[in-house]
């Protein structure tokens, strides 16, 4: 067993052929978010990759499902010599990043007082800082991989935090980060008065550039110091957002690379099990995962 900070809760289980350490990470406001940690053979310290997918919530239920159905990426990272962990974090707040402002931390009556609740990407920062304390982890080699909303989270956190060595943003749903105003392919749910953007059509970069606040996006991008790989998906209805994210980073002189694959699966770097229980993974996915690992290797 590896050493953990005092009062940290860890439960170790065997899931399939793998030993998984469920670690409860204290977030900034004292609530706990679980991570599912796997280690390669050996004594370490190991470089580590923290993985996210989509929106937050579901906690342990999500972990058990993803470990059963989407561990192909973990197996590939373990084989490449990386420790790796699925992250879980709090649920996304509609426009919380745009409307909430920077989180200000103060003290009142001997305890912390915040200007707002932490957001899900700040839970990821807490997770990065947590794994850096583990004796089994090389604190200078923490990498991030995120698909969809979790890809946007990497953009948000690297704009203001510089503790990760590298990030991979696969199909980053970065419309909020770019301050994009949806067109009429999005609508407001009358019951909740929240936006429904599931079918928003933003496949062309020209359309995206017309609808984002360039000044806001540029200010956010200016803070990024972490090397980033942006991965698109050729026929995705948000491909214009993915590509524009890359172009703005490149125009700002950031250390960024772009690659796109013509694959039918959203989140193609996280292959899933098929009905027969075997992983449904094709050569394009293998190539994409190899590209990700090669990129991580170069920066880790």
The end-to-end span amounts to 25 Å
Number of helices: 9
Give the domain tally: 1
Structural class: alpha/beta
Provide the gyration radius in Å. Answer: 19 Å
Please sum up the structure shown.
The chain has helices spanning about 60-70, 70-80, 95-100, 120-130, 150-160, 205-210, 215-220, 240-250, 285-300; strands at about 10-15, 20-25, 30-40, 45-55, 85, 105-110, 110-115, 135-145, 165-170, 185-190, 195, 230-235, 255-260, 270-275, 280. The chain has about 300 residues and is of the alpha/beta class.
Describe the structure.
This protein is of the alpha/beta class and 300 residues long. It has helices at residues 59-69, 72-79, 96-100, 120-131, 149-158, 205-211, 214-222, 239-251, 283-299; strands at 9-15, 18-26, 32-38, 46-53, 83-87, 105-108, 111-114, 137-147, 166-170, 187-188, 195-196, 228-233, 256-261, 272-273, 279-280. The chain has a single domain (9-299), classed as 3-Layer(aba) Sandwich (Rossmann fold), CATH 3.40.50. Helix 4 (120-131) crosses helix 5 and helix 6 (205-211) crosses helix 8 (239-251).
